[in-house]
TrEMBL record:
Residues 5-135 form the VOC domain. It comes from the Bacteria. This is VOC domain-containing protein. The lineage of its organism: Bacteria, Bacillati, Bacillota, Bacilli, Bacillales. PROSITE patterns: VOC (PS51819). It comes from Shouchella clausii. Keywords: Metal-binding. Belongs to the methylmalonyl-CoA epimerase family. GO terms for biological process: L-methylmalonyl-CoA metabolic process. GO terms for molecular function: metal ion binding; methylmalonyl-CoA epimerase activity. Pfam families: Glyoxalase_4 (PF13669).
Length: 137
């Protein structure tokens, strides 16, 4: 059985330029990594603060679903998903599928830091979006 460890907490933000300084001040930390992920239609910034990894995600203009999510939050930063690191993502997916857990895609995708990622469908987690990431950042 694969071991799941908390990797990061993702916060959706309408604008990284205005949100990043607020999070850096609140967490008393600076951004450690920034990445444009056009295949996921987001820009992402990682912050390690107070012993926890945070990912701020900003939608590309064509990311209608994330823009809609933010609109429901009055265009304020909001919890988006929690991510767990696993040693072997295929093994973790297989183990969870045996327990009838649904995923948003059939195969892992490439996410931040070029890691394999997979998202557990919120219908399998009581409404929470969960990301699995292979390896550590």
């Amino acid at each position: 059985m694969d071991h799941f460890q908390i990797d990061h907490i993702a916060i959706a933000v309408p604008c990284l330029r205005t949100s990043l300084p607020l999070f850096e001040q609140a967490l008393q930390a600076t951004a450690s990594h920034e990445e444009r992920l056009p295949h996921h239609l987001i820009n992402a910034v990682f912050i390690n603060g107070m012993g926890v990894g945070y990912e701020l995600i900003e939608p590309h203009p064509s990311n209608v679903s994330l823009q809609r999510f933010l609109a429901k939050q009055n265009n304020r930063p909001a919890f988006h998903h929690i991510a767990f690191s696993v040693a072997n993502i295929e093994a973790a997916i297989g183990m969870l599928q045996e327990k009838h857990v649904r995923f948003t895609s059939e195969l892992p995708l490439i996410g931040s830091f070029r890691r394999k990622v997979a998202f557990i469908h919120p219908s399998s987690t009581g409404g929470v979006l969960v990301e699995l990431c292979e390896g550590k950042t």
